[in-house]
Amino acid sequence: MATDRQCFREAMSRLGAAVSVITTDAAEGDIGFTASAVCSVTDDPPTLLVCMNRHSRLNAAFKAAGRLCVNVLSHEQEALSALFAGNEVPMAARFAQTGWTRLVTGAPVLESAVASFDCKIDQITEVGTHSVLFCGVAAIRLGSAGSGLIYHGRAYHKIIGADAA
Question: Options 3.20.20.140, 2.30.110.10, 3.30.70.360, 3.40.710.10; which CATH number does 18-153 get?
Fold first, then answer.
């Protein structure tokens, strides 16, 4: 089978990924988006990468802020994922849906997240349609490890953690 764009997208839909809400405190206030393109780069020093569409209206604001928080969602937060994935609801209303706090960088940290990685953006690489943000982890906040939210096959799925089984 060919490796055209459509084939690649279909193959990637079969690769399950954790769902996170990525946030920052930009000049215009708190902003965020839903992402499944997040992964560990190294644990020494702790570093994540976050992929963000270059054409997103939030792209420049995240780059200018220089910091972000990766908030890993539980299966109970599927609606929050959808809220931050769309453009219909104003940012302030999205953030009003649940509780937030701040850690080291000042980026919004979801109080009910499974885990939150408070990061400084160390490096940005532009690849095709996306900006790849390499993020040094400044602080971590651990929440309940009971369940996770995975996006696979263009749908959300609940993952049960070992401590919840």
Answer: 2.30.110.10
